Amino acid sequence: MFLFKKPKFIFLLLFIISNIYSCLYFINTGHLLGEVSDFNFKSEETSIYINLLIIFFYLFFLVVIFRFFSKIHVNSLLDNDCRIKWCKAEFFWGKLLIIIQILFIFYFCLTNTFGANSVNRDGGIISALWVVLSPDNLFFIYYSIFRKSRYAKYNLLLAILSNILRGWSGILIFIVFIELCYRYREGKLKIRLLSKICGIMFLLYPVILAVKYGIRDSFLTNSNFGESFDRSWLYVFNNNGVLGYINGLLFGIEQFFSRIQLFSNAVVVYSLKHELANFVITNKVTSYWQEGIYGIIWNRIFDLPTSYNLGEVLANFIDPQSIIGSWNSNPTFLSWLFIDPFQIGIYLLFTIALCFITMFLVKKITSSTLSLDMLWYMWLILIMPGWFASLILFLNTLIIFYVITFIKLNVTIER
User: Fold this and answer.
1) How far apart are CA 357 and CA 17, in angstroms?
2) Nearest to 132 by CA among 296, 286, 289, 285
3) What's the whole-number mean pLDDT along residues 307-321?
């Protein structure tokens, strides 16, 4: 029973169960879940091996590697024992992040960019600045450090508003996770409270989906939100009254598990491994180590041709009618094991190195245990789905957060 009060255990169990369910669903029906449901795959034996690999790497990174690296001792910039530094940084970041988030909301509303399921950007310097600065990542870091700050609730509301306006609902899962971790560490997390939170999320999830789909549709079609919301409401609930709501609940459960499972996408990548390998050989797909902001800088310095990341190419296989690069699909961590098996050792070392650097930076910034919970969550949603560009962007945001905090504290101290 004690384990079921640990938020990290609950979330990891949910993600593993979703993959087991997806695998069993495939074995029983012959169909995959999610956006790759139209793909045909016949080998049940291979699918079982793929699922076992997924479970293994979940445990490897989020249990073994995380526990090992979390034991590393680092002198932190923001330590609970030094309240003067803590209060100065808390006040500074609380106000600065409010300004950043408000400006970002105005920007993407005016330019109709940064919408969910889209890589649409205006290509200008300001757009690039928002990518590098990453207000979402700044909020994740800030909230996990200064959860008790008087400015935290304002930044929380702005972060929710920003994500909802862009058609993202994942921020709500992050908040639930962090709040559960906070209460667990404070000794306030009870089974009854946990059950209530899960129940409320379950009952509200279909409504959240309808709102999210409505916003995404209005982004993509440039249509009125009211019309888009009506279409998405009918899509989710499929009826009126109690029966429609029950349909919405069932749809929500299916959608949730199909979104967090990786099995289906991993199977598709495995079936396309030769085609994707040819894309890599011909430099049409960026290698994993070149993904993200530093890969872009590398290509610019050495005047290398621009290529698409693996997620964008996979999305084009899923929907050949779409414009390549207009959206992406998670390739999963296993993708490069299938595409280039001769580099498994280098690939694992690269990923473990990213884990170490992010752990080191978080510990260098703060001694807050809630920040380690935040980092664990980022590993969960970025490493296993294969979002290396996002993980590297998160790493970059950690560097920015540390540098700005270091400069601010030292300038203040000198004054």
Assistant:
1) 29
2) 296
3) 86
Q: What is the pLDDT of residue 188?
A: 81
> Cα(292)–Cα(357) distance, rounded to whole angstroms?
16
Question: Could you give the CA distance from residue 310 to residue 308 in angstroms, rounded to a whole number?
Answer: 7
Write out the two tokens for 106: 């105005």
Q: Is the pLDDT of residue 354 over 80?
A: yes
Please check whether residue 243 lies inside any domain of the structure: no
Stated as kind and residue range, the H or E segment containing 278 is: helix 273-281
DSSP 348-369: HHHHHHHHHHHHHHHHHHB--H
Give the mean pLDDT of the chain.
87
Residue type, 383: I
Residue 311 placed within a domain? yes
The domain in which residue 392 lies consists of: 30-148+262-415
Does residue 57 lie in a domain region? Answer: yes
**For residue 166, what pLDDT band results from cuts at 50, 70 and 90?**
confident
Q: Read out DSSP for 69-138?
A: HHT-----SB-TT-HHHHHHHHHHHHHHHHHHHHHHHHHHHHHT-S-TT------SHHHHHHHHH-HHHH
Amino acid 239: pLDDT: 67
Confidence at residue 415, expressed as pLDDT on a 0 to 100 scale: 47
Higher-pLDDT residue of 121 and 62 is: 62
Asked if 329 and 315 touch (Cβ cutoff 8 Å), the reply is yes
Q: What pLDDT does residue 121 have?
A: 56
**Is residue 290 assigned to a domain?**
yes
Total of domains in the chain = 1
Distance in angstroms (rounded) separating the CA atoms of residues 314 and 320: 10
